[in-house]
Structures are given as structure tokens and as C-alpha cells.
Amino acid sequence: MNAPVSIDTNSRSHAPTPADLTLTVRDERFNRGTTPRRWWAGEPFGTAWHNALSATFPRGEAFFIEAVKAHRDGASPKLEAEIRAFVKQEINHTREHIAFNRLAEEHGYDIKAIDARVAEMLALTRGRPPIVDLAATMALEHYTAMMAYEFLANPKHFKDADPEVRKMWTWHSIEEIEHKGVAFDTYLHATRDWTPFRRWKLRSLMMLIVTLNFFRNRWKDTLELLAQDGITGWKAKWGLLKYLTITPGVVRRIFPAWLSYFKPSFHPWDHDDRALINKHEGEFEAALMPAE
Q1: Per-residue b/e over 184-194, b at no fewer than 16 CB within 10 Å?
Q2: What's the whole-model pTM score?
Q3: Residue ranges per domain, the chain?
Q4: Residue 241: phi, psi to the nearest 5?
Q5: What's the whole-number mean pLDDT along residues 243-269?
Q6: Alpha carbons 100 and 166: distance in angstroms, whole number
Q7: Yes or no: is domain 5-289 CATH 1.10.620?
Q8: Which of 21, 189, 197, 276 has its CA 20 to 30 A from that of 167?
């Protein structure tokens, strides 16, 4: 078994990324067999929400990779190593969500409309300054980190889910926490000649835009999947709203972390939640590989 890669932080003075941070690539495979149609505790709303999220990941994570790689020139050796690990983790995430999405389609869910909507949104980014793509990536990475923390910290989210699917989301969440500062630190590097206000203004504006588009599109995506399950109208809308804001209430629970993003001094590692990684790490020891 190969060891994880430790990354030296001596070259960075402005970001509170932990000095002993380790990014580990866990080359796991999931969902190559069969999975229940309503894998989230036999319940449609959690199943539809996560299916909708998963449908966005292949194109979305490819976008993240390119946005970060576009700004790696001149980065410190530490940040270069982080970016390489980030890319490898995201490539694996893409592969596993493609496999998961294939299972959803085999159960009769049509997710092609979601993929097409993501493609249309990404097409709108062509021609805009690359730093804007990085700012959008940074905001979306904050979303994945917030949800990853919530999924790992509160077992109720996947307590009654299909074990194989639960394991995939746990694996994905661990690595999202590990690399949650990479896009942000790349942004700090790319905007090192900017004033603090200019840097804060762009990332805050992009978070507002990303938030509007994220919830508007994921709400629409999830309702479409629920309609394919025979659940429509107010029953679908109330059920989804209850799932997101009441029980288990992932959106309600991540709101304080979302709000913290607007602090001028914010950094993703203001909250060191690596203890959650250690709590779950043993499940994936057989798949560790070097990030270099």
C-alpha cells in the first residue's frame, strides 16, 4: 500500500492552511453492481436531490480542474503539489459519479436534461476572464466542502441509505474536505497583486451568483427527477423543501458556514475539520496512492 503525500507549507505566509495538511488520493470504485432505485432510505426526496447533484459532477469537476490549472504558473512548490493532488482526486470523483449516474439511468431516471443544462451554463463562461472561472470554482468548492462536513458530521444524512452509495458519498466528502483550500489558495496566488478589497469583491459577488444559480437549477433538476418518480405539484415542492430545510435540513445546517464566506478575512481552513477525515479514513486504507 502506498503512503499519502504530505505537502510542505513553508512557502506560504498568508493562508492558514494547516502546516501538516496531507492530501491523499484514494483510488476507489463504487456502484458497479446493483443499487435500489430509491437508495436514500427508500425515500424519494433525498434520492432525487443527490441524484441531481451527482448528475452535475462530471462536467462540473472538469470545469474546476481547468479553472485551477489555468492559474498554477508561478505557484509555490507547495501549491503546485496541492493542485496536482486536487486534479487526481477530482478525476476519480468524476469517474465514480459517471458510474453512479449510469445506475440512476438504469433505474429509469432520465438525467440527460440535467447534464445538458450544465453544459449550457458552462458554455456561457467561454470568453470571460479566467479569474472569474476560478472565483466561481472557489465558491462551488465551498459548497462541496460545506455539504461534505455536514454529511460526515451528521450520520442521519445517510444512516439508512444503501451501504454502497453511502460509502461513495463518504469517500467523496473526505476528499472534498482535504482539498477545500486548493482553489482558494490558487485564487490568492492569482490575485496576489490585487488590493484586498478587489479580491474580496469578486469572490463575494461570485458566491452570490453561484448561490442563485445553484439552488435555482438544483431545485428544478430535483423536481424533474421527482416527476419521473410520479411525485409532482405541491407534494413534490413541500417534500423537497422539508428535506432541505427541516429534516435532515442540509441547507439550514450549512447556512452559517455559507455566511462566513463573506468575511474579508475568510479562508476555508478557518475551520479545521480533519478530525472527520480521521473518523472515516479506515474504510479506504486499501486504496491509498501517492498524489505526486
Answers
A1: bbbbbbbbeee
A2: 0.89
A3: 5-289
A4: -60, -40
A5: 96
A6: 12
A7: yes
A8: 21
